[in-house]
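Bench log. Compound arrived from synthesis this morning; before running ITC I wanted a structural hypothesis for how pyridoxal-5'-phosphate sits in the protein. Inputs:
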Amino acid sequence: MKNTYAMPPYKIKMIEPIRLIGKEERILRLKEAGYNPFKLRSEDVFIDLLTDSGTGAMSHFQWGALMQGDESYAGSTSYYRLESVVKNITGYQYIMPAHQGRGAEQVVIPALLKHPGMIFISNTHFDTTRAHVEIAGAIALDAPTKESCETLKFHPFKGNFDLIKLEDIIKSYKKENIAGIIVTITNNSVGGQPVSMENIRAVRKIANHYGIKVIIDGARYAENSYFIKLRETEFSNKSVRDIAKETFSYADIFLMSAKKDGLVNIGGLIAIRDDFELFRQCQTRIVPMEGFPTYGGLAGRDMEALAVGLDEALSEDYLAYRLDEVKFLGDRLREAGVPIQYPTGGHAVFVDCGLMCPHIPYDEFPAQAVTNELYLEGGVRAVEIGSLLLGRDPQSGINRKADQEFMRLTIPRRTYTFQHLEYVAETLIKVYQRRDKIKGLKFDYESPILRHFTSTFTPKN
Ligand SMILES: *Cc1c(COP(=O)(O)O)cnc(C)c1O
């Protein structure tokens, strides 16, 4: 291994065994799972790169803090500890925990709607965010930068908004019909790609001009802040904490799945800068949905672990290693010719299966087909981020075609070693070498909403 990657700033003190089951058994298990890796049992998976959500390892500081959870229903000490950490990081006034990101979404998104058919515009809506917008009777429109589609071409901030498209949407739908601009950082769906501070500032300017609220969907704001430090010269000498603070200064609301950069297994956050009316509305909504506003679906101990994790995720040694893990896997794959979203983003390597298997039509889900082959080859579980995930158009019922058919190899935080990632690369390269023989899929059962989680398939002949 070339010594150009950052060292892990920690050592291992607790282990969890993993096991590779035999090839015949993998064939059987995948068939039983309806060719949908979401339906596999984790014990039948060797290296699990399904998601980085809630799958990371906690530090001994977090495990220690867990013991100090105050389980009072109202006014828990643990809530106030968490509130103080989040206020410190964001500079916002009103803080509520939620059980996870989508819990925060179900509370806040409907509260932003004044009438039916309003529009949210995002650099790219994450899938649950899109679902909550649509369930609330609103419309989710995306305005990602064109560079995000040019998989093989380097661009430092592929997560950016296309600012012209953003403004065009506002003008054509009229500002009074726009419920908010959602800045997803990092932009998960296009490859965990960062958004530049320059772009966030420009979004704020546009929002101010039209009087629209800005929402940060910031599951990975710490990773985004470190990318800004690495790639935007103005910030090379600023701390990640200061960069994050400036990022938050350009928004009104912060929603977070704390299962990512909160370094916890469960948790979410709602933070509101200063809109007291909105806070009050969310406070009313959160009670029947998530729980009393000082626990929001979390145990006191969860809030303790999150308060510690939020600070740890801003450590620059940790972030340097985190981003290099992803880069390492990406580098190995690129060397073998596997087409990936380049450069790699913050939490995953995105393999462009549309480029890899051009013989499979989009509505036979090439990335799902490759994901299945990866499991069969070596027990590695990845996830489709393409036309299967995008679903059908709610009006016409037609299968929407994704810009890219990605398979996401998602790296859990502080969990796998470079050796594990080397194995993942070798396994995928074997699949890549027989890519021409991979076949598409057809539905056995299609779930009506967020269909990638529960649908089942049969491989085409
Ligand atoms: C994971 C995620 C969510 C949803 O959070 P959950 O904790 O999975 O409910 C929302 N937005 C983004 C960008 C995410 O990555």
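What the model suggests: Residues 383 and 406 are 8 Å apart (CA to CA). The longest helix spans residues 316-335.
ITC booked for Thursday regardless.
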